[in-house]
Amino acid sequence: MDSRTIALIRTTFKAVAAEEGGSEKLARSFYAILFTDYPQVRDFFPAAMDAQRDRLVKAFSYVLDRLEEPSKLLPFLAQLGRDHRKYGVEAEHYLAVATSLKTAVQVFAGTEMWTDEVDRAWDEGLKVVTDTMIGAAEKETTPSVWTGTVTERREVLRNLTIVRLQLDQLMRYAAGQYVSVQIPSRPRMWRYLSPAIPANTNGEIEFHIRGVLGGWVSSAIVGQTAVGDRWLLGSPLGGLGIPRNAKRKMLMIGCGTGLAPLRAQLMAMALRRINPKVHLFVGGHHPCDLYDLETLSNLAVANRWLTVTPVTELDENPWWHGEHDETARLWPGLEPRVIGQIGKIVSSFGAWADRDVQIVGAPSMVQTTKFRLMAAGTLAKNIRHDPLY
Ligand SMILES: Cc1cc2nc3c(=O)[nH]c(=O)nc-3n(C[C@H](O)[C@H](O)[C@H](O)COP(=O)(O)OP(=O)(O)OC[C@H]3O[C@@H](n4cnc5c(N)ncnc54)[C@H](O)[C@@H]3O)c2cc1C
Fold first, then answer.
1. For the segment 51-95, what is each residue's pLDDT rounded down to a tens digit?
2. What does the buried/exposed string (b/e) look like for 311-341 if buried means 16 or more CB atoms within 10 Å of the residue's CB?
């Protein structure tokens, strides 16, 4: 796509989305058109569409922001295409979505903004997206969906649960990637989770899940998961991970369950002979939020290339936290715990100019930390994180 085509697509979308409540209205209109004109696609979506609408706009904005970077965008779209096989979608469904999205934007943009040139730009842009997703899905030979049985459920905090599953088919994901997951009590409500251990020939997989207040799926996982439950998993996604011959040092920053994909990478690295130096900052609000210090301590003791600094915003645990407080222990191999906002702490070390950086956690934490690092001189091209939706 040339720069004019990209500019036309971006300007029309942003003009529509930037209006008061524009993104919400656009998403509502898109789904109304889609379900009216193509009722056969309604079954792919959950009954409650609120979270779905929000995700649509964020996902589309993510794609729009990367139109000038085909080397990043096309692999991302290909991964999404492979993942979408789990819904059973066919080429005709992609075309239905593309047509409905164009119609929704066109209606909101109005006749003055929607010129023939804009119309052609949208056709071209949507064709790149749909062709890439359809092409990748058609070429893929791995299962469209993996099935697994919950073998273990461990509540490590009041609202944080570790779930282990035995997969029926091996899944080859790179440590650091994430997968979409569907649990039995929440049909069609797929959510992304990051495996906390590397792919293995036993077909075991582990997830760390924090219950989000009012969240449809996370609270059901934390509150109701039982051994024997059958989960569905989609294809691996995401670009975090360690290059095979990584030479550059690494900086990893993870808060809460954001530790999971970083931990998986550290475990994968521990199986290799040579590794670059890695500094991991693991963060939480209270000291008790650092729920996995024992694993990190074991990794740091056994691997001299790894430095781990725990960071918490507060020095004390909340009053309701029990007396049995493992986090107060001094774990061997770990740096002393530092108190403060994680982005501020990490950037106070300098620009980390010799490091490849990965940030994982809640979207606000990722954005603040990235901002702080860039203000300290870290180059944006050296910072990686997953899409924030
Ligand atoms: C790439 C990626 C990897 C992820 N990996 C993990 C993981 O390993 N472990 C894990 O626990 N979660 C992970 N998540 C988050 C997870 O996918 C869900 O978004 C989260 O569990 C909430 O889902 P829900 O159905 O409970 O909430 P929803 O019903 O989707 O949302 C309910 C409300 O909660 C808000 N909300 C949603 N997510 C969050 C959040 N993270 N923090 C604060 N508010 C939120 C929504 O805006 C909405 O208002 C990951 C997300 C992404 C994008």
1. 788 788 888 888 888 999 999 899 999 999 999 999 999 999 999
2. bbbeeebeeebeeeeebeeebebbeebeeee
